[in-house]
Specification:
By secondary structure, this protein is mainly alpha-helical. The protein has one domain. The chain contains three helices and no strands. The longest helix is centred in the middle third of the chain and has 49 residues. 0% of the residues are buried.
């Protein structure tokens, strides 16, 4: 067992530069990937917020400018006038 440990340590010492370089590349790759994912998430959140803001702004503008719909009340006025004429006829 002891000889195996010694051999392992020798092997690690022999390949230390290679192992350190590999670990450094992995750390850099993980950092770059994390930054890219975070930037994409921030961009998506920002775009969604801007889109929501613009939609709310458009709705507010449409609420400020009301649309008017013409209504024909001639039938009601005719009915009221017939009621008034019937009332006058009864008196």
């Amino acid at each position: 067992m002891s000889q195996e440990k010694v051999d392992l340590k020798k092997e690690q010492k022999k390949n230390r530069k290679k192992l350190n370089r590999k670990a450094k590349i992995q750390r850099i790759t993980a950092t770059v990937c994390s930054v890219v994912v975070l930037l994409a998430a921030c961009g998506w959140i920002g775009f969604s917020a801007y889109k929501t803001y613009e939609q709310t702004k458009a709705e507010a503008e449409s609420a400020e400018a009301p649309t008017y719909t013409p209504v024909d009340l001639s039938a009601i006025s005719d009915y009221v006038s017939t009621l008034n004429s019937e009332e006058n006829a009864e008196e």
